[in-house]
Amino acid sequence: MNKQFIISFLFLLIASHSRGQGSAGFADSIRKRYNIPELNYAVVSSDSILEMYSLGYKKIGSDRKSDIHDLFRIGSNTKAITGFIAALLVKQGKISWDTRFFDLFPELKKNANPAYSNLNLLDLLTFRTRLPRYTYTNKFPTETQFTGNEEQQRYQFILWSLKQKPVPITKDSMSYSNLGYVIAGLMLGKVSGKPYKELVADLGKKLNIHFYFGQPNNIDTLQPWGHNEHLIPEPPGQNNKLDWLLPAGNITISLPDYARFVQLQLQGLAGKSDLLSANEFKLLHYGRPEFSLGWFYNSDDSGNVFTHNTGNPGTFLTNVYVFGAQNKAIIIFANAQTGRAEEGENLLFEQLRKIYIP
After folding, report:
1. Is the pTM here over 0.85, yes or no?
2. Separation CA 276–CA 66 (nearest Å)
C-alpha cells in the first residue's frame, strides 16, 4: 500500500466523518426551528450506515433525551412491508397476484357492491380499485359499530367497506385507498393460515428485525410520545380505527431496524437478495405507474429515479426515499405530525440528497 493511497484514504475518512457531523448539526437546527421534539434520521447504502442520528427529546417539555433505538409509528410505510410479505407468499406459491378476493371469501360476495366483484391481490396493493378513500379521520364507521377483538373488528370493517359506493376511475389509473391493503391483509392471512400480526412477526424473525404495533408509548411510556398538529402529546391508548387499518399503516419500529428493511430493498434491486429476485423487487418498487406495491416513485431535478412513501398516522411523520440506481436511501423519523415538521423533514431530505445523491 503506497503512501499516496494512505493519505487519500485518510482524507476520505476525515471528510466522511466531517460530513456526517455536519448533517447532524444541520438536522438538529431543523428540529429546533421547526418545533420537532424528536428527529431521527439515517442515510444507508445496501451494506453500510452512512449516517444515523437521534436528536431531541421523546416528549415535548420532557428532559428524556432521544435514543437511536426509540420506536416510531411509521403509518403508511407499513404498506411496503405488507407488499413484501405478499411477494414472499406469491413466491412460495400460496397465492398469486391475480388471486381474486371473492375466490377466497365467496360467502362475502352476496352482500358486497358488484363493482368489487373482481378485486385481486395486485390491484388491491397498487391502488387500482374503485374502493373509496378511507383514513382514521373518517367519521364513519364509528368505533362503536363493531365488536369483538381486533381481528374480529377488522373483519367487520371489511364487510362495511365492501358495501360502500365505488369511486369512478379510468383503466389502470391509481385511486388511493387504505381499504385495499386491509382487504389484501385478510387474503394473506387466509392463504397462510396466520393472522397479519403473525406474518409480520415471522418476517421479523427472518430478517432479524423487531416489529411492533400501535403507539410506542402503549408499548412503554418511556418510549417517544407522538404529537398532533397542535404539538399536543398523545397519551397511551387504543385507536380502533388505526387498528382496523393495520396492514395499511400501524406498524411501529426503531430506526436501525427499519434501516435494515430499507437496506434489503437496495440489495434486492441490485439482485443481491436470496429472498426475492431483482425482477421481483422491481415489481414491488416500479411495477405500476406512479404507485406500485407500497412505493410511490418519482424523479428528482437531476433525473434520478427514486421510490418513496410517507407515514402520517396522526402524531408521527416518517419519510423514506430509495435511490436504487445510486445504492442510497434516506430515512427521516419525527414524533410530531405538523405542517412545520413536514417542512423541516423536506428541508433535511433536500440537504441529504445534495450530499449523497450525485
Report:
1. yes
2. 35
